[in-house]
Amino acid sequence: MNVKDNRAWLLVLPVLVIVAFNAVIPMMTMVNYSVQDIFGPGNAYFVGREWFEELLGDFELRNALLRQVMFSSLVLLIEVPLGIVIALALPKRGRSVALCLIILGLPLLMPWNVVGVMWQIFARSDIGLGGAAISALGIDFNYSRDVVDAWFTIIVMDVWHWTSLIVLLAYSGLRAIDPAYYRAAQIDGASRWQVFRYVELPKLSGVLTIGIMLRLMDSLMIYSELFVITGGGPGSSTSFLSQTLVKKAIGQFDLGPAASFSIIYFMIIVTLCFVFFRSITRTQEGE
Fold it and tell me: Which positions fall inside the ABC transmembrane type-1 domain (predicted)?
C-alpha cells in the first residue's frame, strides 16, 4: 500500500508567502478601498462600483490616458530605431568596445529624480546649456509655459535616458549572431541592407521584443522625471496617468477613487502590454 507524503508542498510555502506579500495582499487592499468611501479610520461606507463608473466617465482620466499613449508611442518610435542604428555603428572589437559600452551605460545608472533635476536645469533658457543654445538660434524656448517645448524636453530627456537600453540589448544580440551567416550572405552578394533585413533583424527579434516591452512598461509608469521637470504642466499638458493618480491620492486625498484609479491604471498597463506583445509575436511568427 502506497502512502502519499505531501510534505514536499511545504517547500512551496515560502514562495506562496512572498507572492502573497508582494502582490496579492497589496492588490486586495486596493480592491477593498476601491469599493468604499473613506472618511477616516473606522469611518468608511460601501459604495460598490460607484468610483469605477465615475472614473470611466472622467475626462481627466481619458485625457491623461491619451497623453500617456502619445508619449509612449513617440518614445518607442524614436528609441528603438535609434538604438538599433547606434548598435550597428558600434565597434565590434578592440579597447574602444568597453569604453563605448561604459559611456552608453551611464544614463541607465542615474536615478530617475537625478535625471529630472539634470534636465530641469539643462533645458532652462536662462541658466541651462541646452535651453540657452536653443534660444541662441532665435527660438523662444520655455518648457515651463509652452506645451510644445515641454513635450520636446521630456521626449528628448527620455530618449537620452533610455535609448542606451535598446543599444545594449541590440548590441548583445548582434554579437551573438554566428559569423557563418555573414559569410553566407557575402558569398550570395547580399547588400548591407539585405544583410540587416534578412540576417540581423530576424536574429535580433528576441532581444528587441524584451527591450520594447521593458520600455513600454516603463514609459507607462513614468513619474519622477516629469514631476521634477514640468510638474505635469503647463496646465495639465504633461500630466500622465501616474501624475493624475498621485494628484488624486495625495493632493485631494480621495482614497476610494484613487484605489479605483490604481486598479484601472494597472489593467490598462497589463492590457496594453499584452496586446503589444501578441502583435509583436504574431508578426514574428508570420515572418
Answer: 65-276
